[in-house]
Amino acid sequence: MPPTGARLFLDAGADALLIDGGAVRAVGQPAPAGARVLDCRGLTLTAGAINAHTHLYSGLAPLGLPPPLPPPETFLQILERLWWRLDRALDRDSLQASAELYVAEALLAGTTTLIDHHESPCFIEGSLDVLGDAAERLGCRLATGYGATDRNGGPDEGRRGLEECRRFAARRFRFVRPLGALHASFTVSDATVRRAAELGLPMHVHVAEDAADVADAQQRGYAGPLERLLTLGALPRGSIVAHGVHLTEAQVRAADAAGLWLVQNPRSNAGNRVGYARALDASGHVALGTDGYPADMRAERAALHEESEKAAHPLAEDTLAARARGGHALASSLFGVRLEPELAPGSAADVVAWRGEQVVHVVVDGEVVVEAGRLIRGDLDAIRARAREQAPRLWQRMKEHA
Ligand SMILES: [Zn+2]
């Protein structure tokens, strides 16, 4: 579907924007005849934020996700006792409720692009459709792929995950783009990594999030997971490497030279106690992600500031701006439009109008998707009701899948 053809004028005084064909065409007054005028007087217009690594499948987590028991002491135990139980418990209805809630709240927080990494081992085939349809319906940009893994069902499970990426990539959407994905080097065989390389899609994969991923790759005879994935051909240029907490500066420079994007997730890294990603500044292509936390990028920027201080690795003056540039450049490469942190003629028309800290209007691809704080293409009350209904079902299934 083409972007909306109607001309839209965001009337914010001297900062007014004329939008046409999904892009910003002019800045400033007056409103041209025939354009729809959206009252933005007294509001501040910014580019929509980019969440460069997240998991829509964890969208119900804020609704009472039970704590892992016994309390985990390592990153692997957090995965085994919490997230790998949650992902095995997902079915179509709970995934749909989760995705709708996550996407709706992202838009209402001013985040207009989500780069997702998906896993639901007991509901693989068709799972990406559930995510893609939710984003397409609500009007949020989404790039997603199934994070193939061998950890539950061996190489056959890995093959099914990659097949889901391939199948989904044949669909055409307005707001959604396909990715290839692997869970992480430490949960896939060489055969699955090689099969991922054959997809011909940009990949999205967790790399060196915890030292366990590095130790596993070294046991397999590689310098680390980055080298393993590169050697086996599964990280084509434009692929997305999430975390990189345990990469050295030399490895980060190698990732940069290989044309890879890196995504820093400070809240998640602190929550999982895996460490602070110190070496990422050695690349000029680093974005910010929430790794399953709600997609309010203001909270993630605050966490980056806080965690860098705690790690005695204070941010350079330009770091926050560099992360925003990285996120927009990454999204531009995936969506084939000019997403820019500073709106100017030619920028894609993903715009948020703020009253102070409050999101008032949101425009994605030139279309108003939130107006006066209300979703236009979905019913937030119904989305929240479905989420409240599905969450306890999901927690019960997690017990059964423990
Ligand atoms: Zn993640």
Overview of the structural elements:
38% of the residues lie in helices and 20% in strands. It contains twelve helices and 18 strands. It has 402 residues and is of the alpha/beta class. The protein has a five-stranded antiparallel β-sheet, covered by helices on one side. Strands 10-11-12-13-14 form a five-stranded parallel β-sheet. 51% of the residues are buried. The model has no long low-confidence stretch (mean pLDDT 96). Helix 1 (75-89) crosses helix 12 (380-400) and helix 2 (92-108) packs parallel to helix 3 (127-138). It folds into two domains: 8-46 and 350-373, Urease, subunit C, domain 1, CATH 2.30.40; 49-336 and 378-396, Metal-dependent hydrolases (TIM Barrel, Alpha-Beta Barrel).
Topology of helices and strands:
Layout: E1 8-11, E2 17-20, E3 23-27, E4 36-39, E5 44-47, E6 49-54, H1 75-89, H2 92-108, E7 111-116, H3 127-138, E8 141-144, H4 154-169, E9 176-178, E10 180-184, H5 190-197, E11 203-207, H6 211-219, H7 225-231, E12 240-243, H8 249-257, E13 261-264, H9 266-271, E14 286-288, H10 297-310, H11 319-335, E15 351-355, E16 358-364, E17 367-371, E18 374-375, H12 380-400
Parallel strand pairs: 1-4, 6-7, 7-8, 8-9, 10-11, 11-12, 12-13, 13-14
Antiparallel strand pairs: 1-2, 2-3, 5-15, 15-16, 16-17, 17-18
Helix pairs in contact: 1-12, 2-3, 2-12, 4-5
The structure holds zinc ion.
Zinc ion (ZN) is lined by residues 53, 55, 117, 206, 242, 291.
